């Protein structure tokens, strides 16, 4: 026998023995170290789910009820979004789906105006392209089956296959198969406009959104029908600064908005006609201004008793099934006398000056400040009466 074998054998036995002892001694530690990676990986796969609840579909079904809501006592929101300088930004804030529809004591009167407009101006206030049918029906069903009866239980009561509007007595079928009829019912029962946007189906711009359906009774100086099928950017062509300041971030934001998130913003302008349904005349281009200035008596008389601060409370959210975006807004009109009486006259007058002082000076012409600015400011500052 090789003498080396004698050494080798006890040595190897010794090593084996040591190994066994080491393992026995560290049994718990080894077990833990084997478990830990598994445990850790479970945590990492859990975390995204945990951080996401506000972006989950649950958000559509956890609507907070307003149990004692008395629509006839609720004052309209006082929206005062003006700043001393007008800067073009998205200026959005996060909100909840419960906050989608704002109701107040103007509801009855507004519904009357809306129903009349839907009868008389149907072609202008309501439309649906075939590709938006599922989106319209999805929003409709969610509103009738979930949102309205949960949020406003005193105003909307489910009765059999219908939802009853407690103010007008109208019966809304819980489910609809005709998108035009669904838009009409929404328009007649909710004082909000709903515009549906879908990703473009053209290859070159498929992450950009197009307007594919709407019920819009209160357009503020544009014809919604003429915008049907257009990309966001083309809808905003007349808005100065939009292409330079906003287009890219808007397109990115619209494409990325996840299911379950809803954002809100407000805007304002001065309307000298005070009309809720306004297809044109609230905006102006540089060329139109030049033409007016040449014309004898081209600048119109401003009637301060008809002049209002016009604000929109806008929201944007995505439908979970069709994945369409819903742009919704409610219009508020405040006579400028009210602004002066409440002591906001000076701040609004400064903001009117500020239209030409911010990131897009062209706003001054676009919002027709050049036409009504001096007179409205003088009134707001208490220098003249109406
Ligand atoms: C709104 O929520 C988003 C996502 O949770 C967040 O990134 C953003 O900062 C929030 N915005 C504001 C204005 O709080
Ligand atoms: C409306 O609601 C009130 C109180 O909930 C109820 O007394 C009344 O009968 C309802 N009216 C209609 C038309 O449903
Ligand atoms: C508010 O913004 C929308 C576009 O987001 C525009 O169409 C509308 O004219 C603006 N309304 C007011 C009152 O400024």
Automatic annotation (TrEMBL):
<dbReference type="Pfam" id="PF11927">
    <property type="entry name" value="HODM_asu-like"/>
</dbReference>
<dbReference type="InterPro" id="IPR021848">
    <property type="entry name" value="HODM_asu-like"/>
</dbReference>
<protein>
    <recommendedName>
        <fullName>HRQ family protein 2</fullName>
    </recommendedName>
</protein>
